[in-house]
Design a protein that fits this description.
The complex is a heterotrimer of chains A (364), B (274) and C (303).
Chain A lengths: L13 H4 L3 E10 L2 E11 L4 E5 L6 H9 L6 E6 L2 E2 L10 E4 L11 H11 L4 H14 L15 H14 L4 E5 L7 H18 L2 E6 L2 H7 L2 E6 L2 E6 L1 H6 L4 H6 L4 E7 L4 E4 L2 E4 L13 E6 L4 E5 L5 E8 L3 E7 L5 E7 L11 E6 L5 E2 L2
Parallel strand pairs in A: 3-8, 3-9, 6-7, 7-8
Antiparallel strand pairs in A: 1-2, 1-4, 4-5, 9-10, 11-12, 11-14, 12-13, 14-20, 15-19, 16-17, 16-19, 17-18
Helix pairs in contact in A: 3-4, 3-5, 4-5
Chain B lengths: L3 H35 L10 H7 L1 H7 L1 H35 L4 H9 L6 H19 L7 H22 L2 H10 L4 H12 L1 H17 L2 H5 L5 H11 L1 H37 L1
Chain C lengths: L1 H4 L15 H9 L2 H22 L10 H5 L3 H33 L6 H16 L1 H12 L4 H10 L13 H26 L2 H9 L4 H30 L2 H6 L7 H10 L9 H31 L1
Helix pairs in contact in C: 3-14, 5-9, 5-11, 6-9, 9-11, 9-14, 10-11, 11-14, 13-14
The chains are: A alpha+beta (364), B mainly alpha (274), C mainly alpha (303).
The structure holds adenosine-5'-triphosphate (ATP) and magnesium ion (MG).
Membrane topology (chain B): Multi-pass membrane protein
Family (chain B): Belongs to the binding-protein-dependent transport system permease family.
Subcellular location (chain B): Cell inner membrane; Cell membrane
C-alpha cells in the first residue's frame, strides 16, 4: 500500500487488498470440551464474514486460533495461500478488536493508534500522520489527545478499530466489538464498521451472538454449533433458506407447528401443503409426525367467526405488530401483521391461520 | 504442534514454581524452626511438653501467671475493640453517606490519619491522655482498647467504605424511607445486612491487629499477649516461641476464613449483576 | 468539636432549600460520638506531640528540641532508620512484586493464591514480637538453622559477631514482613492488568519484551513505586520487632524515642522524644502523601 490515505481510496478496492483466508479442519479441546470440532471456513478476499452462534459454540476460539492467540490441536490456518499455523501472533499481521477494555490506558487515543507503527520502527512524523488519518476514518479525529478513560465506550471501540487498521492488517478480526455498547450506539457503529471495511477492503471475520447484527453487516454469515460450521451463506439465504433446523431455529424467531410429512419433500401443516427447504431432511415414511418451523411473517391471520384459533395478545412494534394466537390443540403461534390490522385482532377474536407458501424447515 | 503459546505457558509455570519455592523456603523456614525449637527435648530428642502445657490452661496459669494474664487481656481486648470499632465507625460512616455527604472527606481523612502516625509516636502523645484514663477507669490492660480502636480505624474504615460503595446506599435508604422506615430502622435493618461481609472483614482484621499489638501496650505499661511473650522470652524462650507460633497460626486461619467470606460476597454480587 | 460546628450546612442539597437549623443540629448529633472519640484519642495525642516538640522544660515556647534533632546521635539514628527502611523497602518491593506476579499467573480462585494471600496478610500485619522470636528460633544462637549449619555443614554464621540482634539482623527480619506487605498492595495492580493488553500488543506485532517495555512496565511503575513508599513508611514506623530483638543501644529512631520516654528524665531531655516523634510524623506523612498521589494515578489506569 502507498502512503496515500486509505480513506481516500475508492470503494471497491476490496479485491486489491483483501487476501483469502482458509481455516481447515481446526480442532481444539479444553479438557473434555471440544471448542472446535473440525471447523472448516473459507473467506474470500475482501469479504466480511460474520460468525454467529449460541454461547460456547466456539466462535471466539475460532477467531483466536486464526489470530494466533490460541493454538489448534489439529488443522491448518492459511492466509493468502500461506500456511501460518505455526507462526506466533506478533508475526501474523492481523488487526484485532476486542469486546472491550483493550486500549492501553496510559496512552492517548492517538498514541494507541500509533502503537503498532511504533513497534515497526516507523519515523515519528509518518506515524502521526497515519494515526490522524485513521482517527479521521473512524470519525473521532477531534479526540486524539484524550485518554481511554476520557472516552465513551463507543469512542473507545472506534479507537480500537483505528489501532487495528493502522498496521494495514492482512485480516481484520473483531470479537463481539459492539456487545458492550448501548443499543443505539451499537447499530450506528455496526453500520460504520461495515462502511470502513468496504473502504479499506480488508478480509474480515466478525464474531457476534447477535443475529440481527450478523445479518446486517456481513457478506456471508457462518452459523456455528458445537465447534463446527452449520451453514455459511449470504444473510438472505441464511434467513430464507436455512440449511438445517438449527439454523432456522437460531436465526430469527420461529413458530413450531405440528404437521405430517407429505409426498415429494413436502409437508402438510394446518391443512396446507408446503415445500421443504431441505427436501432430503424429510422423514422417509409418509404421514410421519413432524414439527415445522415457520417464521411469524409467513403466518397470516384472517378474522372469521368460524375460525378455530383465538387471538391471545398483541404487541405493537411500530409499523408492524406481533399477534399471538392459540390453535385448538393449544399450540401457540406468533404472526406478524401490519399494525393497521390490529383493530380487527383484539384478544379473544376467532381467527383462521394461513401460512404463506414459502419453503419451511423441520425441527429436529 | 510447535506450540509457542504452550511453551510460554510452560515458561510461566516454571517461573511461578521457582519463585514460590525460593520464597516459600524463606517464609516457611522460620515457622518450621519455631516448631522444631518448641519440640526440642532435653537430650536433643523430641518432646511435646511445651505444647501440652500450652493447652492445659490451669497448669499454664500456675506456671506462667503473666502469660495467662496477657492471653486473657488480649482476648478481652479483641472483643472490646471489635465492638467499639464497629459501634463507633459503622453507624457514623453510613450516616455521613446518607445525611452529611459534605463531611465524608473529613471523616475519611481522620480515619486514614493513623496510617501516617506510627504507633510509637501515638504512644508519646497518648501518655498524658492515659493518665486521665487511669484516673477514671483504673490501670486495667483492657483500657488499651481506646488506643487500639484508633490503630484499626484505617483498615476498618476502608473495609466498610468499600462495602458501602458496592451497594447503592442512597437508593436503598430512600426505598426503605418511602415504605415508612425511620432512620434507625434504615441503618439497622436495611443497610447493615447488605454490608455484613464488609463489617465481618473489618472485624477479622481487628482481631489480627489486636492479637499482634505490642508497641502501645508495652510503653503504657500494660500486659497483653505480646508483652507477656516478650517478657517470657527472657526466662523461657521455648514457651514464648510456642505462643508466638500459635498466635500466628490463629491469625492465619482467621484471614483464610476472611478470604472465603469475601469470596462469597463477590459471588453473590456477580449473580445479582448478571 | 470546632470542626463540626464550623462546617458549612451539609443539608443544603438544592439551592434555596435550607433545612431548619434545629434539624441540622439533630443531624449533626449523629456524628458527635465519632468526632468526640477521634478528638480525644487521635487529635489530642497528635497535638501533645506537636506542642511538646516546641515546649521547653519551663513550659514556654522554644525551638531547642527541634534544634537538637540536629545532634549527631539523633541524626545518625534517623540516618540508620532511613537506611534500614529504604533497603528493606526496595528488597521487599522487588521480591514482593515477583511473588505477586507468580501468583497472578496461577488460577485466581485457586487454593495456592488464597493461602499465600492470607499468609501475607498475617505476616504483614502481625509482625512484631512474634517475628523476633521466629528468627531467634531460626538463626538465634541455638536456632534450628544455626545449629544445622554449625554441626552438619561446619559454618558458624556468627563467627564475626552475633549480628542478628543488630542492624543486619533487623534487615533480615524486616524483609520477612515487607515482602508480604508488597504482595498485598501490589496484587490489585497486577490484577488490573488486562490480558487483552498483552494480546493487543502481540497482535500489533509486539514481542514479549516490547510489551513489557511499552505497556506492562509503564502501567505498573506507579503502583510499584507507591508500594515501595508504603513499605518504607511501614519499616520506618515499625517498633516491636526492633524492641524485641535489639539487645543493646538504640540504633533506630523508634528505640531512641522509647529511650526518651522511659529513661529517667534528664534535664532538657523530656521533650526531645516529642521532637523526634514529630520528625517521624513528618517523614511518614510526606511518604504517605506521595503514595496517595501515585495511588490515584494507578487507580485511573488499573482500577
Ligand atoms: N481457556 C479456556 N479454558 C477452558 N475452556 C475454554 C477456554 N476457552 C474456551 N473454553 C470453552 O470452549 C468452548 C467454546 O468457547 P468460546 O469462547 O469459543 O465460545 P463463544 O462461541 O465465543 O461463546 P460466547 O458467545 O459466550 O463468547 C466453551 O465451552 C468454553 O467454555
Ligand atoms: Mg466469545
Amino acid at each position: 500500500m502507498t502512503a496515500s490515505p486509505v480513506a481516500a481510496e475508492p470503494v471497491g478496492a476490496a479485491a486489491r487488498h483483501g487476501v483469502p483466508v482458509r481455516l481447515a479442519g481446526l480442532r481444539r479441546s479444553f479438557g473434555t470440551t471440544h471448542a472446535l470440532d473440525g471447523l472448516d471456513l473459507d473467506l474470500a478476499p475482501g469479504e466480511l464474514v460474520a460468525l454467529l452462534g449460541p454461547s460456547g459454540c466456539g466462535k471466539t476460539t475460532a477467531l483466536r486460533v486464526l489470530a494466533g492467540l490460541e493454538e489448534a490441536d489439529a488443522g491448518r490456518v492459511l492466509v493468502d495461500g500461506e500456511d501460518v499455523t505455526d507462526r506466533p501472533v506478533n508475526r501474523r499481521g492481523m488487526g484485532m478488536v476486542f469486546q472491550a477494555y483493550s486500549l492501553f490506558p496510559h496512552l492517548t487515543a492517538r498514541e494507541n493508534v500509533e502503537f503498532g507503527l511504533r513497534l515497526r520502527g516507523r519515523p515519528g512524523a509518518r506515524r502521526r500522520q497515519r494515526a490522524e488519518e485513521m482517527l479521521e476514518l473512524v470519525g473521532i479525529a477531534a479526540h486524539g489527545h484524550r485518554f481511554p478513560h476520557q472516552l465513551s465506550g463507543g469512542q473507545q471501540q472506534r479507537v480500537a478499530l483505528a489501532r487495528a487498521l493502522a498496521i494495514e492488517p492482512r485480516v481484520l478480526l473483531l470479537d463481539e466489538p459492539l456487545s458492550a455498547l448501548d443499543a443505539k450506539v451499537r447499530v450506528q457503529l455496526r453500520d460504520e464498521i461495515r462502511r470502513i471495511q468496504l473502504e479499506v477492503g480488508t478480509t474480515t471475520l466478525f464474531v457476534t451472538h447477535d443475529q440481527e447484527e450478523a445479518l446486517a453487516v456481513a457478506d456471508r454469515v457462518g452459523v456455528m454449533r458445537g465447534g463446527r460450521l452449520e451453514q455459511l451463506a449470504t444473510p438472505a439465504e441464511i434467513y430464507l433458506r436455512p440449511a438445517t433446523a438449527f439454523v432456522a431455529d437460531f436465526v430469527g424467531l420461529s413458530n413450531r407447528i405440528p404437521g405430517r410429512s407429505g409426498p415429494d419433500g413436502t409437508i402438510r401443516v394446518l391443512g396446507q401443503t408446503l415445500p421443504l427447504v431441505a427436501p432430503d431432511a424429510a422423514p422417509g415414511t409418509p404421514d410421519a409426525p413432524v414439527t415445522a418451523l415457520v417464521r411469524p411473517e409467513a403466518v397470516d391471520l384472517l378474522p372469521a367467526p368460524d375460525g378455530d384459533a383465538r387471538v391471545l395478545a398483541a404487541s405493537f412494534l411500530g409499523p408492524i405488530s406481533r399477534v399471538s394466537v392459540t390453535l385448538p390443540d393449544g399450540t401457540p403461534v406468533v404472526a406478524q401483521v401490519g399494525s393497521d390490522r390490529l383493530a380487527d385482532l383484539t384478544p379473544g377474536t376467532p381467527v383462521r391461520v394461513r401460512l404463506r407458501p414459502a419453503p419451511v424447515a423441520l425441527a429436529s | 504442534m510447535a506450540g509457542v503459546i504452550r511453551r510460554r505457558a510452560r515458561r510461566q509455570r516454571l517461573f511461578r514454581w521457582v519463585v514460590l519455592t525460593v520464597l516459600g523456603i524463606f517464609f516457611l523456614l522460620p515457622l518450621v524452626a519455631m516448631l522444631e525449637f518448641t519440640t526440642r527435648g532435653a537430650g536433643g530428642g523430641f518432646s511435646a511438653h511445651t505444647w501440652r502445657l500450652l493447652v492445659d490452661w490451669p497448669k499454664l496459669t500456675e506456671t506462667y501467671p503473666d502469660l495467662s494474664t496477657g492471653i486473657r487481656a488480649s482476648f478481652g481486648l479483641v472483643l472490646l475493640t471489635v465492638a467499639l470499632t464497629l459501634v463507633l465507625l459503622v453507624p457514623t460512616v453510613i450516616w455521613v453517606r446518607l445525611r452529611l455527604p459534605r463531611l465524608r472527606r473529613l471523616v475519611e481523612f481522620l480515619c486514614l490519619l493513623p496510617l501516617t502516625i506510627p504507633a510509637i509516636v501515638l504512644v508519646v502523645g497518648l501518655a498524658p491522655v492515659y493518665a486521665w484514663v487511669t484516673y477514671f477507669l483504673g490501670g486495667s490492660p483492657l483500657t488499651l482498647t481506646f488506643a487500639y480502636t484508633v490503630l484499626v480505624l484505617p483498615y476498618a474504615y476502608r473495609s466498610v467504605d468499600a462495602g458501602l460503595s458496592a451497594i447503592d446506599v442512597r437508593t436503598l435508604a430512600e426505598a426503605a424511607r418511602s415504605l415508612g422506615a425511620g432512620w434507625p430502622t434504615v441503618i439497622w435493618r436495611v443497610v447493615l445486612p447488605n454490608i455484613r461481609s464488609a463489617v465481618l472483614s473489618a472485624a477479622f482484621l481487628t482481631v489480627a491487629l489486636v492479637l499482634g499489638e505490642f508497641t502501645i501496650a508495652s510503653l503504657l505499661n500494660r500486659t497483653n499477649l505480646q508483652v507477656a511473650v516478650n517478657l517470657l522470652g527472657k526466662s523461657s524462650a521455648t514457651m514464648s516461641v510456642a505462643v508466638s507460633l500459635a498466635a500466628l497460626l490463629l491469625a492465619f486461619v482467621l484471614l483464610l476464613l476472611l478470604s472465603l467470606v469475601g469470596d462469597g460476597r463477590r459471588r453473590t454480587l456477580k449473580k445479582e449483576i448478571s | 468539636m470546632a470542626v463540626v460546628t464550623t462546617m458549612p450546612d451539609p443539608g443544603a442539597q438544592a439551592p434555596g432549600v435550607r433545612p431548619h437549623p434545629a434539624r441540622r443540629r439533630v443531624r449533626l448529633l449523629g456524628v458527635v460520638p465519632f468526632f468526640g472519640y477521634v478528638g480525644i484519642f487521635l487529635a489530642v495525642p497528635t497535638l501533645v506531640v506537636a506542642v511538646g516538640a516546641v515546649t521547653g522544660d519551663d513550659g514556654g515556647f522554644t525551638l531547642d528540641n527541634l534544634a537538637r534533632l540536629g545532634d549527631s546521635y539523633v541524626l545518625a539514628a534517623f540516618g540508620r532508620s532511613i537506611l534500614l527502611s529504604a533497603v528493606t523497602a526496595l528488597l521487599g518491593a522487588v521480591l514482593g512484586a515477583l511473588l505477586g506476579y507468580a501468583l497472578v499467573t496461577a488460577r485466581p480462585d485457586g487454593l495456592l493464591r488464597r493461602a499465600v494471600t492470607a499468609a501475607s496478610g498475617v505476616l504483614a500485619q502481625f509482625g512484631g514480637v512474634t517475628l523476633a522470636f521466629a528468627f531467634i528460633a531460626t538463626i538465634g544462637l541455638s536456632g534450628f538453622v544455626t545449629e544445622f549449619l554449625r554441626d552438619r555443614v561446619g559454618i558458624d554464621i556468627y563467627a564475626s559477631g552475633v549480628w542478628l540482634f543488630e542492624l543486619p539482623g533487623l534487615l533480615l527480619v524486616y524483609a520477612y514482613f515487607q515482602i508480604p506487605l508488597m504482595v498485598i498492595v501490589f496484587l490489585p495492580a497486577l490484577d488490573g492488568i488486562r490480558p487483552q493488553w498483552r494480546e493487543a500488543a502481540a497482535s500489533l506485532g509486539g514481542s514479549t519484551w516490547q510489551y513489557w517495555r511499552l505497556v506492562g512496565m509503564p502501567l505498573l511503575a506507579p503502583p510499584f513505586l507507591g508500594g515501595t513508599l508504603l513499605l518504607f513508611a511501614n519499616a520506618f514506623s515499625a517498633y516491636a520487632t526492633a524492641a524485641a530483638l535489639v539487645s543493646q543501644g538504640s540504633p533506630i529512631v523508634p528505640l531512641q524515642i522509647r529511650g526518651a520516654l522511659t529513661s529517667e528524665v534528664v534535664l532538657g531531655q523530656q521533650n526531645l522524644g516529642k521532637a523526634m516523634a514529630l520528625g517521624m510524623i513528618v517523614v511518614v506523612a510526606l511518604v504517605m502523601w506521595l503514595y496517595a498521589l501515585l495511588q490515584k494515578r494507578s487507580a485511573k489506569w488499573l482500577g
